[in-house]
Amino acid sequence: MRDLWLFLLLPLSLATFHGVQGCLECDPEFIKDIKSLLEKLVPSEVPGRTQLLEWQLKKMVNISFKVSHGNKMLRVLAVQKAISLRTWLKDELHKVGSKTWKGVFILQGDLLDIRQNLESRLQETLKHFSEVACSEDCVTTEGPVLDCWRCHRITAQCFQGEYCEEEDPRQPENQEITLFLILIAEFVILGSALLLLHICVTHRRKIKAARRSLETYLDMKLEKLMEITDEKEKEDSGIEK
User: Fold this and answer.
1) Residue 73 pLDDT
2) Could you report the per-residue pLDDT of 33-90, keeping only the tens digit for each?
3) Cα–Cα distance between 86 and 122 in angstroms, integer?
């Protein structure tokens, strides 16, 4: 599900890349450099070259966004570390460019390997830096730190709170309030069910009592009608005699 949301949030064209933030994209020249390097890898006569380059650029840029937004603890990174990752990526693309052209499928395989290695390196680097920056015995690093979500440089070297996924102090209180409201809702539902049951049982009893009264009344009326009928028959018999 998370990958689906990431896909929906991805830019649909190169012009919208500027709205996607990740550690590597915080350098305004990053996308431009990667695009230029990718263009050098694909000969101009290759069919569908433009679409291929756009797709590869999207996949390359998405890695930083996906890793940085996958976990709050993977949000901060030393600027120098981000520069090292970008340098490594450019070097890898240069290596692919120095090879003899062997076709689109071979190129896509090489780029897939680079993306997988980049994702692994980026995740490992972010995780290691976060563990150090969020630890109690935090050791400060040289240079500024980057907030990958907003591309802001931070002067602090050690972190706490949301950057370290620390629990909100109000969370237990909110959980107690939520539990209390759930209990109230359950009592209301249970009380309503009991009241409805009581009404149904009482109503059923009243119906039964009314039915018995009606049956008694009808029996009495029937008996009177029978008596009247019998008397009338006797009178008729006496007249005939």
Assistant:
1) 73
2) 999 999 999 998 989 999 999 999 999 888 888 888 777 777 788 888 888 999 999 9
3) 10
Angle between helices 49-69 and 2-9 (to 10 degrees): 130
Q: What is the pTM of this model?
A: 0.57
Burial 66-75 (b: 16+ CB within 10 A, else e): bbbbeeebbb
Q: Which residues contact 160 (CB under 8 A, 6 or more apart)?
A: 134, 166
CB atoms within 10 A of CB 143: 13
Count CB-CB contacts under 10 A for residue 33: 14
d(C-alpha 36, C-alpha 57), whole Å: 10
- Give pLDDT tens digits for 81-92: 888 999 999 999
The CA distance from 49 to 188, in Å, is 65
Sign of CA dihedral 220, 225, 229, 231: positive
C-beta separation of 50 from 172 below 8 A: no
Does residue 42 contact residue 107 with C-beta atoms inside 8 Å?
yes
Phi, psi angles (nearest 5°) of residue 101: -65, 125
133 Cβ neighbours under 8 A, 6+ residues apart? 76, 141, 145, 157, 158, 159, 163, 164
Tokens of 216: 């008694």
Using a 10 angstrom Cβ sphere, with 0-12 exposed, 13-18 middle and 19 or more buried, the burial of residue 80 is middle
Cα 209 to Cα 200: distance, rounded to the nearest angstrom: 14
